[in-house]
Amino acid sequence: MALRFDGDGKSIDGPGNSAIDARGNVWVDNNYTFSGNPQAPVCGGRLLLKFTPAGRYAPGSPYSGGGVNGDGYGITLDPHGNIWVGNFGFSSEACTDQPPHLSVSEFTPSGKPLSPDQTATSPGGFTEGGIFWPQGVVSDQQGNIWIANCGNNTVTRYANGDPHAYISLSGLGIQKPFDIAFNGAGQAFVTGNESNTVAMLNPDGTPTARSPITTGGFSLPLGIAADSQGNMWVANSNGLGVPCPSGSLQFTSPGSVTFISSDGARTMNFTGGGMTIPWGIAVDGNDNVWVSNFYLQRVTELCGIKSANCPPGTRTGQPISPPAGYGFNGLVRNTSLQIDPSGNIWITNNWKENPQGLSNPGGYQMVVYLGVAGPLRTPLIGPPRPLS
Prior knowledge:
By secondary structure, the chain is mostly beta strands. The chain has a single domain, classed as TolB, C-terminal domain (Neuraminidase, 6 Propeller). 0% of the residues lie in helices and 34% in strands. It has a 4-stranded antiparallel sheet with strand order 1-26-25-24, with no helix packed on it. A 4-stranded antiparallel sheet has the order 2-3-4-5, with no helix packed on it.
C-alpha cells in the first residue's frame, strides 16, 4: 500500500530530499515557493518541512529563516539532532528574485534556525568554505558536515559542524560532486555526476590511494548509500546531468546501480527491476537496496550484500522488484528515497510527470510505501543499523 501526504496543501513544492530523526519524524527540504499554478514563475523555497511518522505536519512546521533559499538534495541530521540543508538556489528562470547558490542552513530539533538569516547585504546561512551550488550535505559519525559543491568541483568539510573550522577539498578527480556516503571507518565516498567517477576520501579529507574510482559502469551518477558492511551502492541516472548551473535532462534512458566494496577495491554493475533514471538510493535493515526513479512512476528493489535476506535463488545485485518496478500512479518524478524505523519508505514527489515548458515543475507530495523495507535505526549517520 502507498499513500501521499501534502502537509497543509499550500507549502510543499518540489520536495528534494528527506532525513528521518530518532523519533521517526521526516524532515524535508523544499525546492520552490508554493504555487498551485504550473505556469507560475516560482522562486526558491524558503521553508523547511517536518512530517510526523503519521504523515501530518509536526507542530510548528513548516519552519523558516536561517538563510533557507531554494534547497536542493542536501539534508542531514548530525549526532546532536540538528538539521542541515544545502541552499542550492532552485527557482524558475522567470523569478525576479534569483536566490544565491553558496550556503547551508542549520536548525535545532525544534525547528529554530541556528544559521544567519538573509539580509539586504548577506545571503544568509553559512557560506564559509567556498560553498557553491551545494547538493549533498551529509554528517559523518563524528558530526563533521560534508558538503558536495556541484558548481565548483569541491567538497567542504565543517569539523564538528563548526563553519569556522572548515577545509575546502579540491583536485579530487570528480566533476559536479553530488552526493556523499560513509563507510564504517568514516571514509567518504562522493559521486561525480559529470566525471562518471567516485572520490574516496579519508576522514580528514585526503584522497585514498584508490581515489578516484573509475570502474563499475558509472553513468551520470547521483545518489549513493552505504550498506551495513560499509559497501557503497551508487544510482547511475544514465540520463541526468545536474544543472549547476548548466546541465542536460534526458527522460527516457534506463540506468543502473554500481556496487563498490568498502575498501574501494571491487566494483560491479547491476540493472533491471524497473530502473528508469535512478536518482535516490537507500539500503534497508535487511541490507536490500531501494532505488527511486525520476521516470515512469516506479520504485526498484535489488538484493543486497546479504542474499540470505532475499527471495530464494536471488543473488546480490539481482532485482527483487518486477521488470516494471513497484509502480504507483501517485508517484511523479522522484528524487529521494529514505527508510524509517517502521520499514516505511518515504519518497519525494519532486517534479511533475511532464515538466517541459513549466515555470513551476515542482511536485506537491511525499509518498509512503508502507512497511515494505527492513526497519532501520534513525537518524542514518554512517552505515545503516537494523532495529534488532
